[in-house]
Amino acid sequence: MTAAPILEARDLARAFTVARPLFGPPTVVRAVDGVSFAVARGETFAIVGESGCGKSTLARLMAGLIAPSGGAALHEGRDMARLAAPDRRRLRRALQFVFQDPFSSLNPRMSVGALVEEPLRAHGIGAAPERRARALALLARVGLRPEHADRWPHEFSGGQRQRIAIARALACGPSVLIGDEPVSALDVSIQAQVINLLADLRREYGLTLMIIAHDLSVIRHMSDRVAVMYLGQMVEIAPTAALFDAPRHPYTRALIAAAPAAHPAAGGAAARRPQALLEGEPPSPAAPPPGCRFHTRCPHADALCAKTPPPLLTAGEGRLVACHHHARLAPFAPPPDPPAPTPAAARRFARYRALRAQQEAAQAAADFTRGAAS
User: Fold this and answer.
1) What is the pLDDT of residues 175-212, one digit of tens each?
2) Going from the N-terminus, what domains does the chain have, and what CATH number goes with each?
3) Over the chain, what HEC string results?
4) Has this prediction a pTM greater than 0.90?
């Protein structure tokens, strides 16, 4: 990247003490351990990995919600942990967070309109009529009706609540939006709507998105670059197409191979490439193995991997890889192309889409009637 990054992590670390026994040393979990990366202005940067790898902790560090144990998280070149109080307040306007669970991230005692207006009130933006107008406009932009502003969060579905959370995050006009698995708690059909909404908002408002996820299909659809985490460290960072077509790190290959095949009939067992699947459980983050942290599960590990941690080095194509042996791995076999639908299947899909359009139109009319009556 030639331009200065809008977000940057430099050797970022965060440790948590999870136990303090009466005798002996405390148990410390290094949730994030020496992570470095940069996010360009206007791009969508995704972070993936298994549960417990530290990606949610990393998101909170980059949002300034928790302080690092070491290293630095920078916004437009400034260390967020060292900002004075007025600068930190301005940072809150520029950098907003969308939480994973829309059922717990919204205050049930506040109306939807008050929730969206809350950031404006907290930052002293506009008079009351201006804040109300801004809230109504944002609700309309995320696909809700203005009359929904007077309702309560429990009256909405999960997808609608996440739209409300996104509207609230946009209220102050941020330049960066960080989402901690923003669609994982939603139904698959609703996930696509929220993903497309985020992509549209990114283009419309010039946002930079940093998305945490474990669903590779979501990441492949919406991201420009992808970072893969394992036990608190980055193992590979690459442009999305390059990472999915030719992953270099054995762990990245295993993640892609383990993803369910959307069209298993296209390649049978080969569609999931079982030769790349892993065995065993990840080591405890409280006691990570020496050397490469992945060597206990890696089929290519040797004595060097067990002793020496691999640095995150450039591997061409705008890619960074932390593996001693990535250059000698066999080429990665891409999944087979999905089969073309049969004419009968194409007709069924067309009827289904027409029925869904009728149902959505009927629901919109019912919402309008209910709003007019209230």
Assistant:
1) 999 999 888 878 777 888 888 889 889 999 999 999 99
2) 7-233 (3.40.50.300)
3) CCCCCCEEEEEEEEEEEEECCCCCCCEEEEEEEEEEEEECCCCEEEEECCCCCCHHHHHHHHCCCCCCCEEEEEECCEEHHHCCHHHHHHHHHHEEEECCCCCCCCCCCCCHHHHHHHHHHHCCCCCHHHHHHHHHHHHHHCCCCHHHHHCCHHHCCHHHHHHHHHHHHHCCCCCEEEEECCCCCCCHHHHHHHHHHHHHHHHHHCCEEEEECCCHHHHHHHCCEEEEEECCEEEEEEEHHHHHHCCCCHHHHHHHHHCCCCCHHHCHHHHHCHHHCCCCCCCCCCCCCCCCCCCCCCCCCCHHHHHCCCCCEECCCCCEECCCCHHHCCCCCCCCCCCCCCHHHHHHHHHHHHHHHHHHHHHHHHHHHHHHHC
4) no
